[in-house]
Specification:
Elements: H1 3-11, H2 16-37, H3 40-57, H4 66-86, H5 93-101, H6 111-130, H7 133-143, H8 149-156, H9 160-180
Helix pairs in contact: 1-2, 2-3, 2-4, 3-4, 8-9
């Protein structure tokens, strides 16, 4: 079913909207959540919670891209669960990905940083847009979807070490780009 029709079902408050949403996007949602959490049970729970989140958000919102809207909700719920789980000293792939980006993306927890985060997001978007398609794919899949190196290797056909090297260079270039834009 097309996204516009699924959104229409949400506006009609039809319960079949959730069924259609799950039918179309469950696999990608579980993958996003599982990459962050590393637990099938936690991932499935976050995905199910995300359907309720979409139900509560549509209406009044009408997303332009339903998959991105849903994946963002799944990702945010998964990150909250990851934070909760990490309080219990559990390790996830998400933590590893974030550790890799720590060197080039500033992390400030102040009122000013909330204002600056929107600008940082725009600058990172500009940086990603400047990359070639393969490097864009690798960066987004690693740091947004938190795909493992092994998974990226299977999808791209590149060796894991080649991917690690490319991402290391991309992070270094991101650092230079952000320094030039005076973010840090």
């Amino acid at each position: 079913m097309e996204d516009d029709k699924i959104i229409g079902l949400f506006f009609e408050r039809s319960e079949s909207a959730i069924q259609e949403l799950a039918h179309k996007y469950e696999k990608i949602c579980v993958k996003v959540s599982l990459n962050i959490l590393g637990s099938v049970q936690d991932a499935e729970e976050c995905v199910n919670d995300s359907y309720l989140g979409v139900w509560n958000a549509i209406p009044p919102r009408k997303p332009d891209n339903l998959m991105a809207f849903l994946c963002k909700i799944v990702r945010n719920l998964s990150l909250k669960r990851c934070t909760y789980n990490s309080a219990e000293k559990r390790k996830s792939n998400y933590g590893t990905c974030i550790d890799e980006l720590d060197e080039c993306v500033p992390s400030r927890h102040t009122v000013e940083s909330e204002f600056d985060s929107d600008e940082l997001s725009k600058q990172i978007d500009r940086f990603i847009a400047s990359l070639d398609k393969t490097n864009q794919f690798l960066f987004v899949r690693r740091y947004w979807f938190t795909d493992s190196y092994e998974s990226l290797s299977r999808v791209t056909g590149l060796r894991e070490q080649a991917i690690r090297t490319r991402l290391s260079r991309i992070r270094a270039n991101l650092q230079k780009f952000l320094d030039k834009e005076t973010v840090t």
